[in-house]
Design a protein that fits this description.
Radius of gyration: 21 Å
Strand content: 25-35%
Helix content: 10-25%
Structural class: alpha/beta
Number of strands: 13
Largest sheet: 6 strands, mixed
Strand order of the largest sheet: 10-9-8-11-13-12
């Protein structure tokens, strides 16, 4: 039998049988020898995987095979670990949920997520939540970042989960797709998903006043299969993947010299560099640095590139 993995908790997996009722989930285990295949990943089965399983007499299932993934997104299992953790698989779009107020999301964090999405061939967009808290300064900052990321080729949304502003555009985005929502704790991700699809009723946390950081309300990735009705009146099935708030996003299996290929605006000008192995840091006649001076590549994104480059170089040196 075939099924879609909606949730993973320890050694058990919630599987939705293909072409079956959404309420008829099967609790599955992984066949005992499956983990002995030399997999570097801590979780051989992830949310979004299509699996083959067989039913047992007690009503549970045993997973015998994980079908090939169209794509997936990973992070390092722990800071110093060589193992990776697959967050989710078979994703149509990654929505990076961010805020500019309480607590502010750094562009460095956003870019790490975007770079990872590019590397694993996942289209991405950015959703800035809590626009109801904007003052004039934050509105200016938002417009500046919107310009930067749109210039790089990303769609940027401005929403308020609290007041309902801008939700319809995002609702149109998720209809008929498998969409992964990810971001720091405290950005209002669960509140945003509840506002988009009220029947989800996800638990919503608060932001700590003293640390300015969010409290985790989601403890593991989970997919929700829901019907979403857009402004055009059409109802489409959406597969929404909610993830735990991410504090840090370790880059996995990246080579420093390949990093610029995952910045779309840099990728467009790489052919103009004098040196084929240009790292776009100190080399002369570098097309990327020239693009930064001309304003076609933003200084903000370029500085984040330099920071990620050093991080990736250091991680490669220690692994």
């Amino acid at each position: 039998m075939q099924g879609l993995v909606l949730r993973t908790t320890g050694s058990w997996y919630k599987v939705l049988p293909k072409e079956n009722d959404r309420d008829m989930l099967v609790d599955c285990r992984l066949r005992g020898n499956y983990r002995l295949r030399g997999n570097k990943q801590t979780n051989p089965v992830a949310v979004g995987d299509w699996v083959e399983y067989a039913m047992q007499e007690d009503g549970t299932g045993v997973i015998s095979e994980v079908q090939d993934r169209r794509n997936y997104i990973v992070r390092r299992a722990t800071k110093l670990s060589k193992q990776t953790h697959v967050i989710a698989a078979n994703i149509d779009c990654l929505c990076v949920v961010a805020t500019l107020a309480f607590p502010r999301t750094s562009t460095g964090f956003i870019d790490r997520l975007l770079v990872t999405a590019e590397a694993y061939h996942i289209p991405a967009c950015i959703v800035f939540n809590k626009v109801d808290l904007y003052d004039e300064g934050l509105r200016e900052m938002h417009n500046e970042l919107k310009s930067i990321y749109e210039q790089a080729g990303y769609k940027v949304y401005a929403v308020s989960a609290l007041e309902g502003e801008g939700l319809e555009e995002v609702r149109q985005l998720i209809g008929g797709r498998t969409v992964l929502f990810s971001g720091h704790s405290g950005v209002g991700k669960s509140a945003l998903l509840n506002a988009l699809v009220p029947q989800l009723e996800l638990r919503v946390g608060e932001v700590s006043d003293w640390s300015m950081k969010g409290k985790h309300t989601t403890t593991f990735a989970e997919m929700y299969v829901v019907d979403v009705t857009g402004a055009d009146g059409a109802t489409r099935t959406a597969h929404i993947i909610d993830t735990p708030g991410i504090k840090e996003f370790g880059m996995v299996d990246f080579k420093p010299e390949e990093l610029s290929h995952f910045f779309p605006e840099m990728r467009e000008v790489l052919h103009g560099c004098y040196f084929a192995n240009c790292t776009h840091r100190h080399e002369p006649r570098c097309a990327v640095k020239e693009a930064v001076e001309e304003g076609t590549v933003s200084a903000e994104r370029y500085n984040n590139y330099l920071g990620i480059f050093e991080q990736v170089k250091d991680e490669n040196a220690t692994n």
